[in-house]
Every structure is written in C-alpha cells, then in structure tokens.
Automatic annotation (TrEMBL):
It catalyses: ATP + H2O = ADP + phosphate + H(+). GO terms for biological process: maturation of SSU-rRNA. This is RNA helicase. GO terms for molecular function: ATP binding; hydrolase activity; RNA binding; RNA helicase activity. It comes from Rhizophagus irregularis. Residues 89-101 have a biased composition (Acidic residues). Its EC number is 3.6.4.13.
Length: 594
C-alpha cells in the first residue's frame, strides 16, 4: 500500500524530495515483507500520526472499516438536493446565480427582496434595513446620485454592482451605522466611497467631513487613488495624511478648512490630533477599512482616540473587512448605534475563485527547494510570497536574487519611495516575484496576481484569508499554496477549515485533524507577542514611523507617548472613548445583574 497516496490526496507531496521522510511515512522493510494487513497499516498510521488523529480518523483514512459509511460533508436536504455542510454559523442555500434577476423597481414585496438577497448571498442583521439595489443606473434614477458619480462609474467600466455594493450603498445613504463583511477583492472600497461622495454633495470648505482609517500607508494610498478616480468632476479636496501634508497643515492652519475628506493611518492621525493640527468635529462619516485589524489590541487605543475626536453627534460609523472575529463584532456592537450587519456569503471565508492548496515541505529547508522547483518548472507571474518577518523576507530575497528572475522584496524597513516604486513595478509587470511581509497582506489590490505562496505558515485564520485574498480579485481566478512543515501541524486545521468552507478539495485525513488547541493558540500568542516586542525595539532603534509596527507584526503598536500629552488628550475625550464606553456598559450590566 502506498501511504503517500493516502496522505497526499488533495495535498502535494514530493516523494523524490522527501526521501528521508519517506522512511517515516512508509512501512519498514520488515513490515513490507509481511502481508499488508489492516493492523500493520494501523501501526504505521499511529506512528506517523503527528497530528494526533483519533483512531477512527485513521481507520477512515485507511478505509479499514469498510462497512462504516464515511461521513462526508455533503448532506442531502429534504428535497434530496446536495448541500455543503459548512462550519460557519450561517449556512446558506445556493441559488443559481445565472437565474434572471429582478430589477430593483421590481423588488416590490418582501419576498422579492428576500429572494434577491438570497440570490446574491446577502445576509443582513438589524432593524429597518433599506432594500438593496441591482444596477448602477438606479443610483441616478432612484437615489438621485449626481451625474458625475454615475459618469465616473461608467468610465471605470463596472458593469454592475457587487453584492456588498448592492446592500451597503443604500444602508450608507440612509445614514445608518454599518458593519460590512464581504470577501477579499469584492469591491468594499467602492461600497463606501460612492455613498460618501453622494452625501457630501460638494466641497464646503468647513474642514474634514469624512474620514477613512486604514491600517497601512500603502492601503491608505490606494484608497486615496480610488477616491480621486471617483471624485473626478467635483472639486472635493482629499487629503492623504503623511508627514509632509501634516507639516503643511501645521504651518498654514487656514488650509485645513479647505479639505473635505481625510485618509490616514491611525498613528499618524493620532499625532496630528494631539498636536492640534487636525480637527475632526465636523466629520459625519467615519470608515474603518480592515476594521477588525483596527479594533485589535495595539491599534485599538489609537482607534479609540480617533473616535473620541470625532465629536459630531450625527457621526455615521461604518466598518468594512473580509473578516470579523466574534470578539471584534461584540466590541463593535458596543459603540455603534443601531447598526446593520451585512455578511456576503459565508462569514470569515476565503474568496471562492481562489484555488487553495497545502504543500508539505518536510523541514524548513524544504520551502526554498519548493520555491526553486516552482521557478524551474515555470510559473505565471506575478507571484506574491508571504513570509513572517522582515529578516525572513531579506533572507529569501538574497536566495532568489541569483535565480535569474525579477524578484523584489517589500517590508517596512524599505523606504517609502522604494515601497511606492515596488508597488508600481508589480502592477506594471516589471516584478515577477514579490516577497512580502504582512504589510501587503490586507487590502492591497493587485489585480493580476496569479499565485500567492504562504512560504511561512500564517499566524491566524484572518491572516490566511487576507494573504491569499491578494489573488482571485474582482471575480478573477487565482491560486494560493501554503507550505507547511511538521511544526505547523497544530495549526493546520484552521486553514483546512477555510479551504473546506470555500469549496476547495481537502483530503479526508486533513478534515479529521483536531482544531488548534487552546494551548497551541496560547503558544502562538506568545510567539506573536515576542514578535511584537521585537518590532517595537526596531521602531525605537531606527526611529521609524508607525508602519514598522503596523505593517510587519500585524499588530499596529502604539508608540510610547509622552505622559503629559496622553493625559491631556485622553481626558478631553474620555466620555466618548470606545474603551471607556465598553467599560461603562460592562459596569452598567454588572450593576443590573447585582
Ligand atoms: N462593481 C464592480 N465591478 C467590477 N469590479 C469592481 C467593482 N467594484 C470594484 N471593483 C474592482 O474590484 C477590485 C477589488 O476591489 P476592492 O479593493 O475594493 O476589494 P475589497 O473587497 O476591499 O478587498 P480586500 O478585502 O482585499 O480589501 C478593484 O480592482 C476594484 O476596482
């Protein structure tokens, strides 16, 4: 019996390369001489069971229990139709998307609306939820959007709205707070830009009225470009907050009032708020792009300070991301006012146009061999390779630079000019392989990326979903390969779950793996915490800006602030702080219980 066939179905396993591991996975000579009985197979499977499967899982893999029906994740529903059994709490029925769609004007009854949402896999939670719309033409005819917006949409050649746009835009123009979860590359940016432009109407010269926060400078720049594209024909002043723009506004205060829209990373903005360079009292729209990241520890304090500075009573808050861990949802629910939650497809799932694979590489060294083999065999550029740290990125770059391919590396120790030119070169096809840290994992829209390689195993499910989401964008197909070693075994199941949920083939033995234990998650947290410390040291040592903290460690850490300024500013906003809101609510709840 060829155990590689058993182990390798669905995953890739190179026998030639892992001659040493073969001895681990194959029966010894002695065993080979004996009959290939179930008992022998069981012994071998127990021996190589470094994922600690249950006995029944091994049985299934071997097919030992012949008459036991192997439980597949495909069940028959009452009508006898097959439906995939998902791990998410929001299973859904699939309709044929090719079915003719009713136009929004045809959505007369609740049934029409319901079936429209179902067809587009739009799940909604909340009260008084505005109906979705189905065609960009409706924006002009039904919602009275100004002609310049409709024209810019036409010029962008977007034929029809994506599901998140169909539902989020009406919610936003009704002024409601929103938590929007939709897959990577599904057009979330436009889903907030368009209604914001509509609501702002035109330039007013009273200072910032809309604010978009993004965890990285690169993503903020991308959002800025998208805004400029959609605002053509209106003289809105959009500011991307940088050291330079902050300095200009510090020197010429009257300039500040000319701006309408502000896009920034959290730390840059917090500094500007503390130095009284930026006023946010007129902000009516606050968007957190990659909201779950911005509400994670590390970023949370800064986000909190920004919320507190947005003192307009009519402030509308909207959170967008492809992932929302439940802890973040709970926190968000605490500070939003009667929010509507929109989920497109399955919660926390990967984009379905991405073909996901897991590749066993044996030990650490196997990763480089695997990449080299891919290069030798020929690949379709551009390819993004994700590694876990700046050091790893540099190392891999030095390995690949001599392999005759156009390779570059991006991380937060590279200068801003270098980073900008790398992104441009990748978009122009001048770079074939880009090695990247988490800096590039979220939000970046490189339409043509054909393959994402997770060279180092991602540190969280969210990281996995966002990393692989750099391919397969806007309905295109893409491929993602995740290398794994024995050391990654405790975390493998998290990725397997995502693969399964998004309809990728996964071998049965992988499905039987245990979910990561609390202990292993804790271990992971310790590793992450030490990385965080390391990054903070780096930031202090090189006196670099916020991007070091945010980009590469996943955790935007707050730079040490002078006690005085912190005290002054925090006390000013205390009553509206997210954190204090949460604490007050918790205290109130406790009081009620008592
Ligand atoms: N209605 C549309 N039709 C076709 N393409 C669209 C449409 N809306 C947006 N796009 C394109 O889809 C791509 C992905 O959009 P966007 O970057 O907003 O995705 P996203 O959902 O924010 O992804 P991520 O979660 O990775 O940040 C962009 O290139 C954008 O131009």
């Amino acid at each position: 019996m060829d155990l590689f066939k058993v182990l390798g179905s669905g995953a890739r396993f190179n026998k030639k390369r892992f001659t040493d591991d073969i001895s681990l996975f194959e029966p010894s000579n002695k065993l080979r001489k004996t009959n290939d009985t179930s008992d022998t197979q069981m012994d071998i499977m127990q021996e190589i069971n470094f994922f600690h499967n249950s006995k029944s899982a091994i049985d299934e893999t071997l097919g030992v229990i012949k008459d036991k029906k192997i439980t597949k994740d495909v069940e028959k529903d009452q009508e006898g139709e097959e439906s995939i059994n998902c791990y998410n709490d929001e299973n859904e029925d699939e309709d044929d998307p090719a079915e003719e769609e009713p136009l929004v004007k045809d959505l007369n009854s609740m049934d029409d609306v319901k079936s429209f949402r179902k067809r587009h896999r739009i799940h909604i939670y909340g009260t008084d939820i505005p109906n979705p719309f189905s065609s960009f033409d409706d924006l002009g005819s039904k919602y009275n959007f100004q002609p310049y917006i409709c024209k810019n949409l036409k010029n962008s050649a977007y034929e029809k709205p994506t599901p998140i746009q169909m539902q989020a835009i009406p919610i936003m123009i009704h002024g409601r707070d929103l938590m929007a979860m939709a897959p990577t590359g599904s057009g979330k940016t436009l889903a907030y830009i368009i209604p914001m432009l509509h609501d702002l109407k035109g330039p007013e010269k009273i200072g910032y009225r809309a604010l978009i926060i993004s965890p990285t400078r690169e993503l903020a720049q991308q959002i800025y470009r998208e805004f400029k594209k959609m605002a053509v024909g209106k003289k809105f002043k959009v500011c991307m907050l940088t050291k330079a723009t902050a300095a200009t506004q510090a020197q010429t205060p009257h300039l500040r009032e000319k701006f309408d829209i502000l896009i920034s990373t959290p730390l840059r903005l917090v500094h500007a708020i503390q130095q009284d360079i930026i006023e946010l009292k007129n902000v009516r729209h606050l968007i957190l792009d990659e909201a779950d990241k911005l509400l994670e520890l590390g970023f949370l304090e800064q986000t909190d300070e920004i919320f507190a500075a947005c003192s307009n009573v009519k402030l509308q808050k909207a959170l967008f991301s492809a992932t929302f861990p439940s802890s973040v949802e709970t926190l968000a629910n605490d500070f939003m006012k009667d929010p509507i939650r929109v989920v497109i497809g399955l919660k926390n799932a990967a984009t379905e146009t991405i073909k996901q694979k897991l590749l066993y590489v044996g030990q650490e060294e196997g990763k480089l061999i695997a990449v080299r083999q891919l290069i030798q065999e020929g690949f379709k550029p551009p390819v993004l390779i994700f590694v876990q740290s700046i050091e790893r990125a540099k190392e891999l770059f030095h390995e690949l630079i001599y392999d005759g391919i156009n390779v570059d590396v991006i991380h937060s120790e590279r200068t801003k000019a270098q980073r900008d030119s790398i992104i441009l070169n990748l978009k122009q096809g001048k770079i074939w392989v880009l090695i990247a840290t988490e800096l590039m994992a979220r939000g970046m829209d490189f339409k043509g990326v054909n393959l994402v390689i997770n060279y180092d195993f991602p540190q969280s499910v969210q990281s996995y979903i966002h990393r692989i989401g750099r391919t397969g964008r806007a309905g295109r197909s893409g491929e993602a390969v995740t290398y794994y070693t024995k050391d990654d075994a405790p975390y493998l199941k998290s990725v397997v779950n995502v693969m399964k949920e998004s309809g990728c083939e996964v071998p049965d033995w992988m499905l039987q793996l245990k979910n990561p234990s609390r202990e292993s998650k804790k271990r992971l947290q310790i590793i992450e915490a030490s990385k965080k410390r390391k990054a903070r040291k780096l930031a202090i040592a090189s006196d670099k800006n916020e991007d070091i903290n945010k980009g590469d460690t996943i955790y935007g850490d707050k730079k040490e602030k002078k006690d005085k300024s912190k005290g002054d500013n925090n006390s000013k906003y205390e009553s509206k702080s997210l954190l204090s809101n949460k604490k007050t609510k918790q205290n109130n709840r406790k009081k009620k219980i008592n």
